[in-house]
Amino acid sequence: MAGCLALTDGLTRARTLLCLRAVFPPTYDYIFAAFAFVLGASIGSFLNVCIYRLPLNLSVNEPKRSFCPNCKYQIPFHHNIPLVSWLVLRGKCANCGKPISFRYFGVEFLTGLLFLAIWLKVWAWGRPGWPHQEWLLALPYWIMGGLFIVATFIDFEHFIIPDEITIGGAVAGVLLSFAIPSLNDQHSNIMSGLWSIFGAGLGYGVLWLVVELGKKAFGKKRLTFDKATSLSWVRRDEEADFTVGEEKMLWSEFFYRGNEQLLLQCNWIEIDGQRFENVVARCECDWLHIDQRKWELVKVDEIKGDVTEVTLPREAMGFGDVKFIACIGAFLGWKAVLFTIMSASTIGALVGIATIAIGRREWSTKIPFGPYLALGALIWLFCGPELILWYWRYSTGQGV
Predict the structure, then answer these.
(1) What SS3 class is residue 223?
(2) How far apart are CA 280 and CA 113, in angstroms?
(3) Exposure string (b/e) for 6-20, b if CB count within 10 Å is 16 or more?
(4) Cα–Cα distances in angstroms (integers) from residue 127 to residues 12, 29, 117, 319, 388, in the given order
(5) CA-closest candidate to residue 376, choices 203, 213, 137, 208
(6) Domain range summary for the chain, segments of one domain joined by +
(7) Less CB within 10 Å around the terminal CB: N or C of the chain?
């Protein structure tokens, strides 16, 4: 009897200690949480470099120090402290005094919050069946979160997701899955890596099928103008800026497969100084044709003219999104792929409905799909399985 009372008393004390730890976490919990936020803000400073340089085909290593986008002044260390420097300098360059976009502060702050949330997820909250040592999962999730932030901001601004993020992220996800088997709820390193490859392949295959079906459903888009509209094409290395009127696009956006064609009905067109009037220009990814003449675009620097009609190849989504979901699958697995696609589509539909309701339908057409995919994947990371369980119980009448 005395033994039973002692055991009961011990369990009571243990429960009390757990409750107290939940209410008053030990000091090291605060230290780790603060470290996660500061680390995230510091990484966010590098992510800003990637967001600015990758779409411009600039090296993220040279120059090694960040520079002002306006005067190109290389920023010294004491003016490049995450979060603090932007606030102290009031969002201006210390050299030229020109404004520095709030995005730089926002990315650092957002990355800090995301790193903190991920740390709390794997350390304080965990998930059913996780041993406490699973804090190691913070590393791959931090890497994944950083990739999501870069992809989101680049996609918002340039409507592309660079291969360094998508393909590089998929490779990183697979390698980390081989190294950390619990990333895929496995004990075997090999099985974890194989499930990661399967997740990446499933994601790529599903969205590739969507793109192919969308190609058949949407076909081409024809733009007709009441009066002649200016056209320009300017090459920069292996990419080109294509502008019609006020709409500026990347040339590669129209040629995912390489065999698409873009037609231009021109009042006049000038190709590196050679002028033609009242012609139809047929453009491929690497070639431009006018009647029997053709130009290899890699040898052309500039095209300009006036157009009355443009026929564009049209896709349901870009191939950058297809590769991006493969990256998500490599980190989070095949279940996350299915959840992410469904939730991203749902969020996109809700945003579309909301913009129509407030009379701003054009806003939804300017939001790429990559940010929806990133948001859907983060929802899965933090509460996806719990949402599915809740929905299953609710739909089957088992209660919440």
Answers:
(1) strand
(2) 53
(3) eeeeeeeeeeeeeee
(4) 24, 18, 14, 34, 14
(5) 203
(6) 19-125, 131-218+319-400, 220-313
(7) N
